[in-house]
Amino acid sequence: MAAKFIVTDLSYLLGSIPFSFLLTRMATDLAVRYLGSGNTILEPRMHSGLLALVLGLVVVVLDAMKGALAVTLSAEIDNHEATGALSAMFVAVGHLYPVWLKFDGGKGVSTAGGGFAVVPPVSTLVGFVCFIGTVPVTRFVSLGSTMATFALALMLAINGESANVLIAGFAVFALIVFRHRGNIGRLALGSERRLTSWMPVGGRNVI
After folding, report:
1. Is 137 left (phi over 0), alpha (psi -120 to 50) or beta?
2. Which residues does 70 contact at the CB level (< 8 Å), separation at least 6?
3. d(CA 20, CA 50)
4. Looking at residue 57, what is its pLDDT?
5. What are 45's strand-pairing partners?
6. Is 193 helix (H, G, I), strand (E, B) or coil?
7. How does DSSP classify residue 29?
8. Splitting the chain (207 residues) into consecutive groups of 10 residues, what average pLDDT does each group show?
9. How many domains are there within the chain?
10. 4, 28, 133, 142: which has the highest count of C-beta atoms within 10 A?
11. Predicted local confidence at residue 110, as pLDDT
12. Are 141 and 135 in contact (CB under 8 A)?
């Protein structure tokens, strides 16, 4: 039991490292929460030019790595499937609700993908393929993100993963959908911004 508490705490703290916020502040001195949808995610940087796109891609990799690292470390502490599932869930929770940013973090897709890639890698691969198949066609990152997370959770069930992994997977899916609720509402209304949209940010236009 003590090991599981250590794993959940460690996973949450790793997940809560706000790479997006930190790198964007260092590179542009502009708080990322004032860009795009206001969350620390890749999408705002994709509206902000080439440098921002590169930063965003770096952030995606770092976010995925912290998810994978959390689950890998959990196996060293307590090599049990339930512990790995807890780690994958709590590293995503840490990214979604980081204590350092007053519990207002990102959308969690990259971090969740990295975490679950260590538990059942095939499911994460299917989710990734779903993402890269959706975004170039629709130019909606939010749609690609929610579809990818749904595909990951669905593949967990199709592959017959254990109850622990299924519960963690669908819990993370529900949290990510909740964090995308504003985007989903705008998609339904036809007002969601695409990747090439212009919008004012701090008195400037950001693409």
Report:
1. alpha
2. 10, 11, 14, 15, 87, 88, 90, 91, 115
3. 16
4. 85
5. none
6. coil
7. S
8. 87 93 73 46 51 80 95 90 92 94 90 90 92 91 93 93 93 95 92 65 32
9. 1
10. 142
11. 93
12. yes
